[in-house]
Amino acid sequence: MLHITLAINVQRINAQQTKQFTPLKHGAHRIGKRADSVMAKWRGYGLGQFITWGVYSMPGGEWNGKQYDGAAEWIRSWDGMPQSTYDSLFHHFNPLKFNAIAWGETAKGMGAKYMVVTTKHHDGFCLWPSKYTDYNIAHSPYKKDIIGQLVNAYNKQGIDVILYFSVMDWHNPDWRYEIKTKEDSIAFERFKKFTRNQLIELLTRYPTAKGLWFDGTWDKSWASNGAFGDELEQELRKLHHGLIIGSRFHADEYGKRHFDSNGNLMGDYEQGWERKIPNTISDVHGNDWECVMTVPENMWGYNKAWKGHIKTADELIEMLAKCASLDGNFVLNFGPKPDGTIRQEELNLAKDIGDWMKVNSEAIYNCGYAGFDKQDWGYFTKSRDDTDKAYMIVFNVPVSGALRVKVPAGKTIKKTYLLNQPNEAFEPEQIVGNEYFIHLKKTDHTKPFVIVLETANSQIKQADGNAKT
Ligand code: 1KN
User: pTM for this one?
Assistant: First the structure.
């Protein structure tokens, strides 16, 4: 038995050694995390707000009394609504109740440190007055630049802004899914110039933007133009100091997306965590990452019906804690209404999350993976600066009231107390070696809560608690 196992291991090692390295011009340009201060700030954001807004908020997932089953911002792709009708909606887009300052206050109240906003979704409608297409906000009855107002209002609240941009553009006649003919390739060359122009325009108009958030980059047309995307990315980075771009912009020269042909992450952070969260630290491969999450199952733009399960504030706080515990940011989507207001359900969630953050954000901001074994009661986080202070974000209180903690080898617990009641210390019970129980004094919590865990290097070499068996 042992003999067989060894043989398999040897084979594996050989396979690794002979694995081919593919020389790439347009793959990853850096291995590992960015080390600069702009990215360090991004890493510390913890919580963000995503805003999906455009003319799709007008039908709100419904046309002629019929309900569209997909996400509301995709309604243009539905047979039930003629594309020409959709493309005329903007003549009536007039969000008179839009108040960028009020949105910024909501985001601030929730505890968001950054905001991602759709400058242009797949439908091609631009919320800024773009020089490169008339299909933009200046040609709507509303007229005013929405992106500019948001950038200013959010920056005044101390919230950084990242610009969402869909490369795929259903409105531009030069967009192609695939390049099949000479004509296609001529059209797509024009489209590439248009895309470059719009991106330079955005960065020039909104110099305080911290990054670009790309979407609609999966089609063959774009993925087979990896060299163009990569060179454009380098150009944009030169233009805009510290610019943050995730793994979703360009493919490598073999059409590989996110991770290049050698398995290395392209861009500054992994952008594949859309509406999903990794389970263990090994799932994130040491990279920066961010999760973007919707409140209902899969609806970004405003949907009148809001079908299916609607996540609660506690569920969302748990997702936020889980992300922080695995080194990622959590970004919650809002889909404002066509009149420019945010629906009451979302305002309530922002308030409830904010109320929790006011007490507990120390366990989220600038926190990451703590290096402790995961336990069933919730999530450990640790400040990226303070190596001897961890947080236990507790969601599931066991009937015993005893929370199991296993501190890393070579550490002991120095002090344990509730984050919001620092004077009330717990006395951890040592189970064996570096494993402890923290006995809660009350077990009828109605909200997730945070326990601070101060550790110290253990003086005495620990006995068999750490021994490998
Ligand atoms: C599964 O295919 C898609 C394609 C596009 C799922 C979602 C999306 C878009 N990305 C999100 C950030 C939303 O903007 C959504 O419309």
Answer: 0.94
